[in-house]
Design goal:
The complex is a heterodimer of chains A (233) and B (285). With 233 residues, chain A is α/β, with parallel strands linked by helices. Chain A has helices spanning 42-50, 72-77, 95-100, 113-119, 121-125, 136-148, 166-181, 194-199, 217-222, 224-231; strands at residues 2-13, 16-27, 31-35, 57-62, 65-66, 80-83, 154-158, 185-190, 202-207, 210-216. In chain A, 35% of the residues lie in helices and 28% in strands. Chain A has a 6-stranded mixed β-sheet, with helices on both faces. In chain A, strands 2-1-4-5 form a 4-stranded antiparallel β-sheet, with helices on one face. In chain A, strand 4 (57-62) and strand 5 (65-66) form a beta hairpin. Chain B is mainly α and 285 residues long. A two-stranded antiparallel sheet of chain B has the order 1-2. In chain B, helix 2 crosses helix 8 (181-203), helix 2 crosses helix 9 and helix 10 packs antiparallel against helix 11. Classes of the chains: A alpha/beta (233), B mainly alpha (285). The interface between A and B is medium-sized, with 27 and 18 residues.
């Protein structure tokens, strides 16, 4: 059974259809990635998953529960966590408050403030600073830590490595492995194959608002030239 | 000395009102035109409670709660359905609140002036540094400072304050963290309404209670909110102090220039630092 599945989803921006009959799924504890070029519809899909974009037709399932009609805060309480593009750190909260805000709803689980600081010691050094004073890499750590503190079943990561220095990217990949090893399923959105092939077992390639290819990482390697042409600019 | 006391008491009165207005704007993105009407309603409800019980203190405790509850009901039933629409609808709606509140007050209490006597505890003037100071003014300063301190504690240190700040800056993100932002909006509208009513209650022994009382004060209140920076509550307290003291000094030394002082402050702010005199960003345009 899937921890999260979108089945045959249509999503609209105003009158323009952004996603066409999209189906993706992630099993409990699994890592999948959504790959595609800029504007392909990856972020739209992730926002539909967390309920920030309305699913016009189709279904969202979490376990055996149909959650299509639920609001974002209800989905958050049921175990979806969203780490958005551009991180969306609360600038008027301190680093520690940015983490604590995720615990307000009180979902139980293994993640605590101490464990986030263990995972990202840099955040502890910056705990009392304003959220708007962090570097890009620190912001990304904070956004991931904030998502984790909701104790999610599924973590939705939108381009976590975008714009970060190679060393920071390596650290982040390690952290994502650690998080996944704790049993958190991850949906990773990326524009290229590098990070997905390191982390994910299955891949979905998105183009023009459609899933145009899906398969395991091994299958992707076998078909790599064609996949790269689908996601290259 | 009496200029300072009057200035400070005016400042805190303005801050109670401006704090509510700026909180509501920060959280809901709505400029609440009816804020002055809620202030007036607070004074009338206090009058009624004093009329029934004879105690100003009961009025002080309960009138803001009554108005806050009304504010919550207004937000849930009328504002909530129109957030997704253009701003103009929310403005029109809060303007509509004014008409409804004023008509209701006229039906219930009529057109004649009402009065709330100064509570006995603070009815005698106190001699300070050679001048006679109305002790009720001192009460306003102390009480205003206390409420302001509690408000800052609430916003800066409490869980609810953290939620309000987060939801004000990015409501979508806050929602994904399991926060029911609709409820936060209602709570903030209720809090803001309660603060407006509290201002009305505190002002009640000083001024005649009448339908137009909200109108004059709300203009100063808007000026404070703009000088402090829309949605910036720390700016609002500094702006309230600035405007309150400036007006008190004006009354003492140049009474005919008082209104001018208010608007010169406003115009200078808008020309030099349109995002607020006390905003960190400075000139935004």
């Amino acid at each position: 059974m899937s921890a999260l599945a979108l089945q045959d989803c249509d999503v609209y921006y105003g009158k323009a259809q952004a996603l066409h009959h999209v189906s993706i799924d992630v099993a409990a504890g699994e890592v999948v990635s959504l790959i595609g070029r800029n504007g392909a519809g990856k972020s739209t899909l992730l926002k539909a998953a967390i309920g920030l974009n309305a699913v016009h037709s189709g279904r969202r399932l979490m376990g055996d529960r149909d959650t299509t009609a639920l609001k974002p805060y209800e989905l958050g309480r049921l175990g979806l966590a969203f780490v958005p593009e551009n991180r969306r750190i609360f600038p008027n909260l301190t680093v520690e408050e940015n983490l604590k805000i995720a615990t307000v709803m009180g979902r139980k689980g293994p993640w605590s403030l101490e464990r986030i600081y263990q995972l990202f010691p840099r955040l502890l050094e910056r705990a009392t600073q304003g959220g708007d004073t962090l570097s890009g890499g620190e912001q990304q750590m904070l956004a991931v830590g904030r998502g984790l503190l909701t104790n999610p079943e599924v973590l939705l990561l939108d381009e976590p490595t975008e714009g970060l220095a190679p060393l920071i990217v390596e650290q982040l990949i390690e952290a994502i492995r650690t998080i996944n090893a704790e049993g958190v399923a991850i949906v990773l959105v990326e524009q290229n194959l590098k990070v997905p092939l390191k982390l994910a077992r299955r891949q979905f390639v998105i183009d023009n608002g459609r899933v145009v290819w899906s398969g395991t990482s091994a299958e992707l390697q076998a078909d790599r030239a064609r996949i790269e042409s689908l996601i290259s600019v | 000395m009496s200029t300072i006391v009057i200035g400070l008491s005016l400042s805190f009165l303005l801050f109670l009102l401006a704090a509510g207005l700026t909180l509501i704007f920060g959280m809901l993105g709505v400029i609440n035109f009816a804020h002055g009407a809620l202030y007036m309603l607070g004074a009338y409800v206090c009058y009624q409670i004093v009329h029934w019980t004879g105690s100003f203190w009961i009025g002080l405790a309960f009138a803001p709660i009554v108005v806050a509850a009304l504010g919550a009901a207004m937000e849930v039933t009328t504002l909530r359905p129109v957030y997704s629409r253009d701003h103009i609808y929310q403005l029109l709606l809060t303007f509509g609140f004014i008409l409804v509140i004023e008509e209701s007050v006229r039906l219930i209490w009529g057109l004649d002036y009402k009065q709330v006597p100064t509570p006995a505890l603070f009815s005698q003037p106190i001699a300070m540094l050679g001048s006679q100071i109305p002790s009720y003014r001192l009460f306003i300063i102390g009480f205003g400072a206390l409420v302001s301190a509690l408000l800052f504690l609430l916003l800066d240190r409490s869980r609810l304050g953290m939620v309000i700040r987060a939801a004000s800056s990015d409501s979508e993100m806050a929602q994904t963290l399991g926060i029911n932002v609709s409820r936060v909006r209602t709570a903030v509208f209720a809090l803001g309404s309660g603060l407006a009513a509290l201002g009305g209650v505190v002002a009640a022994p000083l001024v005649p209670i009448e339908l137009g009382m909200g109108f004059s004060v709300i203009i100063d209140c808007f000026v404070v909110v703009i000088i402090g920076g829309l949605g910036n509550i720390k700016g609002a307290i500094l702006a309230a102090l600035l405007l309150g003291m400036a007006r008190a000094a004006g009354f003492t030394y140049a009474p005919e220039w008082v209104e001018l002082i208010t608007f010169v402050l406003l115009i200078v702010t808008l020309m030099t630092r349109p995002s607020g005199l006390f905003s960190r960003k400075g000139r935004s345009a």
